[in-house]
Amino acid sequence: xxxxxxxxxxxxxxxxxxxxxxxxxxxxxxxxxxxEINRGFFTVGNKSIExxxxxxxxxxxxxxxxxxxxxxxxxxxxDLIIQxxxxxxxxxxxxxxxxxxxxxxxxxxxxxxxxxxxxMGLKIDSQVLSKELGLPVFSFSALTGEGVLDxxxxxxxxxxxxxxxQVVSLETMDCHCEGCDRCASGSILSCEGLDLxxxxxxxxxxxxxxxxxxQTQMHWLDKVQNWIDQPILGTVLLLVVAYLxxxxxxxxxxxxxxxxxxxxxxxxxxxxxxxxxxLPAGIIAQVLSKAVPEGIIIPFTIVMPxxxxxxxxxxxxxxSGILPRYSVALxxxxxxxxxxxxxxxxxxxxxxxxxxxxxxxxxxxNTTQRFIAITLLSIVVPCAATLGIMASVIAxxxxxxxxxxxxxxxxxxxxxxVLGRMNSRQEEFIYELPPLRIPHWQNVGIKxxxxxxxxxxxxxxxxxxxxxxxxxxxxxxxxxxxEGLGPITHVLFGIPSEAFIAVLLTIFQRYLAPLLLLNLxxxxxxxxxxxxxxxxxxxxxxxxxxxxxxxxxxALVKIVCMGFLASFLIGIVLNLVLP
Amino acid sequence: xxxxxxxTGRKVRVISINRGAGAEQRLLEMGIVPGVEVELLAKHPLKxxxxxxxxxxxxxxxxxxxxxxxxx
Lengths: 579, 72
Fold this sequence. Notes:
Strand content of chain B: 35-45%
Shape of chain B: globular
Number of domains of chain A: 2
CATH topology of chain B: SH3 type barrels
Radius of gyration of chain A: 28 Å
Shape of chain A: elongated
CATH class of chain B: Mainly Beta
Largest sheet of chain A: 6 strands, mixed
Largest sheet of chain B: 5 strands, antiparallel
Oligomer: heterodimer
Radius of gyration of chain B: 11 Å
Helix content of chain B: 10-25%
Strand content of chain A: 5-15%
Number of helices of chain A: 24
CATH superfamily of chain B: Ferrous iron transport protein A (FeoA)
Number of domains of chain B: 1
Structural class of chain A: alpha/beta
Number of helices of chain B: 2
Largest interface: A-B, 40 and 35 residues
Helix content of chain A: 55-70%
Number of strands of chain B: 5
Order of helices and strands of chain B: EHEEEHE
Distance between the termini of chain B: 6 Å
């Protein structure tokens, strides 16, 4: 049996999904967290139910990819529709209900967040709504589990089909909206006149279902929300929060490096000795005894703290509902660069890992904007792992931090300015701001764990393997053959050929390239130019794969060309400008 | 009167939404329809977005969109 979970954005569909299937799909507090269909299974009695968690939509006839996906799935006649509604915004949510009822499929309504509605002094009578619509309706709280048993009981009994809506007879309804060319297209769903009828009907239903019990109590979070949504004060507060996040991140990396290396040093000594003891003396033992400890110490002391802290901070920003507020505060700045404020969400996610950030660009309104955002992510947004290694290169060679950061900013501004010209027609900003919430520690924990897992499964093994490869190259003397390139790289970028190899290495994985640098002897000036060229260059392999999936190969080729161009340009400019 | 010309803090009723702003469909979906009451919470300077409260949600709207909303 196949069931689909649908509803407006940010009503808690994924929470319900996790509750029912025991999955651990990411749940965040902003509209558009789930942009793909999640699949899970659960059993009721002897029935096995496949549950599809659909991305949120406001209406079936939205002009969005998500609405098209949902329509497609509904046209395959699922056995059951479970709609999740937000208890405190019932009216708007019911419009979607009425649209869904046209499909005439078995359907259940879950009025989620009833606990929050109660706090706001709203009493919701699911029985009344159930009678009006002829559908099973349950008060539900995915957070506390209220209503879960009622739902399972109903599913075991079976769910009746929804009746055709009584609002209007679709077939005979004449459309009178002026200048409406959509009615002629045959898509009755997209006609404004009909929509308004549904809205009226939804308002009526909501009025019957909800009783106001006394005054809404002003929660302290509402007060904070009022401050943060003020134009000037809010923007200042948001900037302070962003600044604090960066300070916490840098301090954390700083403070943790000492203790971690103290802990690891004896371990590494042991490994190194063991390799020398076990392997026959020779080049292999020599390479491994150096490469393995190096390949362990760098990820643990540099990459791990950065990834951990970024995961924690990001989960807090997401779950508290603060993240989308940046999109409003920064909208005017973004517009100069052809991006709507929403782009801040994928760009910030990119500071953690850029692969999921590429997927998150789906919340942007059109392909042009998505291309701009993915290009910026690929070329100028350093991920947590890159940031960590960048910091270590800067520290080791005493490279100039202002020059690196300045170049990054200049590249970001320059690129987005050029790309912004592509997007001539600006889409109008429209975004629902989620209510502020205290992040749920369990949910934060799940996210941090999932995002941080990549350290052990991907980054640590890769860095270890690459460290061995780089050591081998260094010890074997292959690099001497490349010295012929030296004059060219010296004139153009002011860096030795080995450092240029590191720049080209970014094709595989950006954060691997600086590893090679760490093994060279470079002057501060050379190190500054080389690390800047590395940080501003190419998307890593996983990002390339995602980009092809999202925008196609042609877009990726463009991005890669721009990446090389930007990187070389910055190298040349720095070579001319730096003393 | 247009929504974006109001002072912040005012509660008004939406009368109509002018066509041509390119997003009337999206406004309707989000519940900004003729007849509903909205409260203007904030207007970001330099023609930045406005924030309106509708029922229990807050919606951020671009200035041009806000200008397309006729209120009483």
